[in-house]
Amino acid sequence: MLAVDHAVPENHVAVDADGNAVVHYRFSRDALDGLVRGNRAAARICFAAGAVRVYAPFADPPTVAATEADGLDTRIHTRHWKPGKQSVSAAHLMGGARWVGERTTR
Fold first, then answer.
1. Are strands 63-65 and 12-15 parallel, antiparallel or unpaired?
2. What is the mean pLDDT of residues 27-37?
3. Is residue 41 scored above 90 in pLDDT?
4. Is 96 inside a domain boundary?
C-alpha cells in the first residue's frame, strides 16, 4: 500500500561532520491514517479472496484471523504504530530531485 506524505520543513536530509547523510523524518498523521486505511483495505481484499489470516503491521498482535474481519477498524489502528519497529519503505524519500546548479547542453 502507498500513502502520500507531503513535504514539511522538519523532514529533511542533513550531512554530519563525517560527510554521512542523516535523515530527519517523522510520519505525518495524514500519512499514518493513509497507511492504516490501506492496511484495512488490503486485509479485506485478502479475506474476500479466502485468506484464513493476514499479517497487518498496524494491528497488535499483527496477525489477524478471518474470524476477526468484522472488527478490522478496531484491530488495525494508528495506536499500534511503533516508530522504528515496523518496516516501511519509500518510493521516493524526499520527493523530486531538483537541480539547482548550472546546466549545460551539448
1. unpaired
2. 89
3. yes
4. no
Asked whether residue 54 carries a pLDDT value surpassing 70, the answer given is: yes
DSSP, residue by residue, the chain: --------TTSEEEE-TTS-EEEE----HHHHHHHHHHHHHHHHHHHHTT-SEEE-TTBSSSEEEGGGGGGHHHHB-GGG--TTTS----SSTTS-----S-----
Query: Per the domain annotation, does 10 fall within a domain?
Result: no
> What pLDDT is recorded for position 82?
85
Residue 52, in any domain of the structure: yes
All three cell numbers of 5: 506524505
> Where do we find the cell 551539448?
106
